[in-house]
Design a protein that fits this description.
The chain starts with a helix and ends in a 7-residue tail after the last strand. With 363 residues, the chain is of the alpha+beta class. Strands 1, 4, 5, 6, 7, 8, 9, 10, 11 and 12 form a ten-stranded antiparallel β-sheet that branches. A two-stranded antiparallel sheet has the order 2-3. The protein is built from four helices and twelve strands. Strand 7 and strand 8 form a beta hairpin. Helix 1 runs antiparallel to helix 2, helix 1 packs across helix 4 and helix 2 packs antiparallel against helix 4.
Length: 363
């Protein structure tokens, strides 16, 4: 639907691009609107791509967070079991240590008393030696069991420490991933909002283009639009339009406008005192002289060969539509009518219906 509307607007632009009276400003306005639409469409396309890319990153991070949560859960289960194993191992070590200590205390209490008991309970020296050897073996066996238990205890403690470290790393990674997700989600929300605003701008621009196209069609049917390509321009370099005032406050090209935001400025703004004289840049025919919307009081002069000059925001007009003017003739006074923030001349040059940089034509 939108493409079909754009096709209609483009058709209007092509149909009236050669016009050079007030219709020139409309044709250029329509052309500028169309360029703005195309620019905004490109911005919207890029914005949608960014939004899609960020959505993929959010989904990827959400998957990572779920995976980390699973690993954290597994580590918590493992850690819980390790704590239980460690407690049991410690209990075994303590018990074995207590039993061994008890036996040693009974066997070797007060040093050699235990040996005396063994001797007295032995029927012979040979049996005594055998009993002594048995005691040593029991002690050695208890020591081995105790060392094994201690090794098991140490291994469990070591693994528990490793799992706790891993768990801390997993939780840190999860926190980082969640921060990244929140940041990207915020970026995505902002871009989505910008895309929505850009889409609305496109709709507004298309409505504006449709209105301009309707105005242009009405002027064409009433015969207001004249063709500026009926002769050849032979006037050479254009004369500076504001004698004594040469300061340019806004150049030709993109700028930030206090009324419309970022826009393409189709001319140059020349600072000048209110009421100072505006002169024709070259000889020609006045094809428009009157109030022209945001341009305020405005004059357009056809110089032939598709070249038209335009003088905007005038405080007063000294020539009428249809009048022939000579180079340097006073045609109006500087003012601040229309969409203006102060006294100045908005000076524009059209070549075959399209704006051109005035500095390329001025003397």
């Amino acid at each position: 639907m939108r493409n079909s509307r754009l096709a209609i607007f483009i058709a209007f632009i092509m149909a009236f691009a050669i016009c050079a009276d007030t219709g020139i400003a409309s044709a250029k306005s329509l052309d500028s609107i169309q360029k703005d639409i195309e620019k905004k469409q490109q911005e919207l396309k890029e914005g949608k791509n960014k939004e899609k890319s960020l959505s993929s990153k959010v989904t990827e991070l959400e998957g990572l967070i779920i995976d980390l949560e699973g690993q954290i859960s597994s580590s918590e289960t493992e850690l819980k079991q390790l704590k239980k194993d460690l407690k049991e191992a410690q209990a075994k070590v303590d018990k074995q240590n207590e039993e061994l200590g008890g036996r040693l205390r009974n066997m070797y209490k007060n040093g050699n008393v235990g040996f005396l008991d063994v001797l007295m309970n032995s029927s012979s020296f040979s049996e005594f030696l055998t009993n002594i050897d048995l005691v040593e073996k029991i002690y050695a066996s208890d020591k081995d069991v105790l060392e094994d238990l201690q090794d098991a205890h140490d291994q469990i403690a070591k693994k528990k420490k490793k799992v706790e470290k891993l768990q801390a790393q997993l939780k840190s990674s999860k926190a980082t991933a969640e921060e990244q997700r929140a940041e990207i989600q915020a970026q995505k929300s902002k871009i989505a909002k910008d895309n929505k605003e850009t889409a609305k701008m496109i709709d507004d621009l298309e409505a504006e283009a449709q209105a301009e196209a309707a105005k242009l069609a009405a002027k064409s049917e009433s015969g207001e639009i004249s063709n500026s390509n009926t002769s050849t321009y032979t006037g050479g370099k254009l004369l500076w339009p504001t004698p004594g005032f040469t300061t340019i406050t806004s150049s030709y090209g993109w700028r930030m406008c206090p009324f419309h935001g970022r826009e393409f400025h189709g001319g140059i703004d020349i600072a000048a005192n209110g009421g100072s004289t505006i002169v024709a840049s070259a000889a020609g025919k006045v094809i428009s002289s009157g109030y022209n919307g945001g341009f305020g009081y405005s004059i357009q002069i056809d110089h032939g060969g598709g070249l038209v000059t335009m003088y905007n925001h005038c405080s007063s007009l000294l020539v009428s539509t249809g009048a022939k003017v000579s180079r340097g003739q006073a045609i109006g006074k500087v003012g601040s009518t229309g969409s203006s923030t102060g006294n100045h001349l908005d000076y524009r040059v059209f070549k075959n219906g399209s704006t051109a940089n005035p500095m390329s034509y001025l003397k």
